[in-house]
Write a structure and sequence with these properties.
The chain is elongated. An 8-stranded antiparallel sheet has the order 1-2-3-4-5-6-7-8. It has a domain of 107 residues: Lipocalin, CATH 2.40.128. The longest helix has 29 residues. The chain is α+β, with helices and mostly antiparallel strands and 204 residues long.
Length: 204
């Protein structure tokens, strides 16, 4: 006698139940193995940020140089602007801002009398003379911005012009006119024509 085949839905239901049981067993075994052998944490951790060395206390020479800095807003070539202000946290250090960039700088008096503002990170350098200031990129040896003039520098330029005019009106010899109309000796520095290197622009 032939045994009747079970109905198709019953077979499908039995097959599905068996598959679910098998899948559940496999998942349970995998979870147990994972619990026994936890995955090790990645050894590649994000690199820690380097700790910056604290700024050195300002020396008397640095303090004198800071007193010679022309603070305030500067008008530069190509309608650019630059601003120098005293750093509120570190005495005798200055903040220099140009566009969206800013630097913390240390004032230094050069042997020529020019004031150098040296970026504490070694990325930029600003040179201040009587008639103008310029900001340079130390790494590329190129000028970031040039022909920057502060209100104090405008006063010095105007005073030099008046002195020259007075010397010419008095009929003084050319040598006397040069001495009376020139900017103070402490504010002169030799700057090479463009493109200028940092070494020539920041003359010792």
């Amino acid at each position: 006698m032939t045994t009747p085949l079970p109905a198709l839905p019953v077979l499908l239901r039995a097959t599905a139940v068996a598959a679910l049981c098998t899948f559940g067993a496999v998942a349970a075994n995998a979870a147990a193995e994972k619990a026994k052998h936890p995955v090790a944490k990645s050894a590649h951790k994000a690199p820690a940020k380097p700790v910056e060395a604290p700024l050195a206390e300002a020396t008397p020479e640095q303090q004198r140089a800071a007193e010679e800095v022309f603070y305030g807003a500067y008008q530069c070539e190509f309608n650019q602007t630059l601003d120098i202000e005293k750093n509120p946290q570190h005495a005798s250090y200055v903040n220099v801002k140009a566009g969206k960039s800013a630097w913390l700088m240390k004032p230094v008096l050069s042997s020529t009398g020019a004031v150098r503002l040296e970026d504490v990170k070694g990325e930029a350098l600003m040179v201040q003379i009587a008639s103008k200031s310029m900001l340079l990129n130390v790494k590329t040896a190129r000028r970031i911005v040039d022909d920057c003039v502060s209100p104090k520098q405008r006063e010095l330029i105007a005073a030099a012009k008046l002195a020259r005019a007075a010397a010419e009106a008095s009929g003084a010899p050319p040598e006397t006119r040069l001495l009376s109309g020139s900017a103070p000796a402490t504010a002169t520095v030799a700057v090479a024509p463009r493109p200028a290197s940092v070494a020539s622009a920041a003359a010792e």
